[in-house]
Please model this.
Amino acid sequence: MNKDFFRINQKINLMDILKILDVSEEDFFSQKNNVVSIEKILVEDFVSFENLKKNKLSFFTNVKHDFKHVSSGICLVERENFKFLHKNIIKIPLKYPKKGFSKLLKKYFNQNKINREETLIHPSAIVDKSAKIGKSVFIGAYSIICAGVVVEENSYISERVTISKNCKIGKECFIGSGVFIECATLSKNVNVFHNTVLGKIGFGFFPNKNKTNLTPHIGGLVIEEGTSIGSGCTIDRGLIDNTFIGKYVMIDNQVHIGHNCIINDFCILAGQVGLSGSVVLEKNVILGGDVSIKDNILIGEDSVVAGASKVFNNFPKNSKIGGSPAQDINAWKRLVASQRLNLKRRKTN
Model:
C-alpha cells in the first residue's frame, strides 16, 4: 500500500485475518504452516505478490508468475497452488484468494464509510429545514440539501454535493465530492463517486428549424441497493417513466446512461460506455469499455459485449457480442480473419 495515503491504525494479527476470511485454525494448521502461535504474527502491510516479505500479506493466483524469488510473508492461496510457493511462506487456504484480499481491504481501508455516533453537518453546508436527516449522517462543506430531501442513517455526503428537492438517499450510502443529484431515489448502500450527475434532464427533443427545445422530462431515476457508480458519470432521468438501475450494478468512470434505460441486477458497465435512451440490459450483462448501444435495444440476460463494440440490434440471452456493427463474436472474428486473409492475398498478387 502507498503509506502516504493509506495506513494501518491498529494491530492486525493473523487470528483476525483468519476470522474475517472464515478460515478455521484446524484448516490453517492442516496445511503444515511453520507457525507456533497465530496470535503473535502481525500483518504490517498489504502488498502485491512481487513485494511479499515477512509480516506482509498478499494473494497468489497466477501460476505463470515469477514467484521463485518470493520466500517469506503471508499469502492467500488456493490449495492446488500451494506447491508453487516457498515452504516458508505462511499459506492461508482460500477458494478465491483475490476476493478474500478484497474483503480484507474493505475491512481495513474502506474510506467511504466512517463510523460516527452522531450526525455531523459542516457549518458551511446549507440544509433546508424541511429536509429529514437521519442518525449518524455526515454532510460535508458547502453541500446543499434542498427542501423535502431525505438522507437516511449512516450515510456520508461529501463536500460540494447538491441534492435537489424531494430526493431520497438510503441508509449507508456514500456520495462523493461534487456530485449533483435531482429527481432521484437511491436505496441503501449505494456508492456514487466524485463529480457524477444523477437524474439530469435527458436528450429528448423535436428538431425545429426556427427553435429546437428539449422536451421536459417528468420521470425520475431509481437506483437499487448495493450499486456503485464511478466518477464523472451522467445518468438521465426518465421522460415520463423512471430510468432504473437495479441491485449491485457496477458502473465504471465516465459512463453515460440515457433516459428510460433499464439496467437490471448485477450488470457491469466498463469505462466510457454510452447507452442511448430506452436501452434494456437484462440481468448479469457485461459491457466492455467504450461500448455504444443504440436507443431501444435489448441485450438478453448473461450476455457479454466486447470492448469498443457498436450495437444496433437486439440480442438474446447468453449472447457473446463484438464488432462494429456488433454481431455474434465468433462470426465477427471469422469476418476479421477473412478480411485479413484477403488483404494479404491482394498484397502478394
Summary: The first strand starts at residue 12 and ends at 13.
